[in-house]
Amino acid sequence: MPRKNSGMWYEVHPTPVKDSDGKNLVYVRPKSGQKLTMKQLEDYCERTYNMRYGEMSRALDMFIRAAGRWMAEGYRIETPLGSFAPKLSLARQVSDPDAVKDRDVRLEGVEYNPGKMWDREIQKWLDGFRRFQNPDTKAILADKEKLEQVLRECIQRHHGFVTAGIFSRASGLTLYSARKQLNEWTKGDNPKLLKTPRGKEHIYTEI
Question: What pTM was computed for the model?
Answer without folding.
Answer: 0.59
